[in-house]
Design a protein that fits this description.
Helix 1 (6-17) packs across helix 5 (55-66). This protein is mainly α and 70 residues long. Helix content is 69%, strand content 0%. The protein is built from 5 helices and no strands. The longest helix has 12 residues, at 6-17.
Length: 70
Amino acid sequence: MATYSKELAQNWINKYNNSAAKAEGTSFEDFLMDCMMDYGHNEEAAVAVCESINIATFIPFCEEVNGGAL
């Protein structure tokens, strides 16, 4: 299983919690995938996400850091 830092997870949890997407009912998984696809929004972040995050292992890790489902 991939290893992620708690800081990385918390950063994405905060981005999600403060997003319009969450307010509109978008799931955390869809939010992450949209961020990965949306290179025009923030290319540097999107490239970093694509290179460093595996959705299948990152979401459970974030939920563990969060103390519950997102």
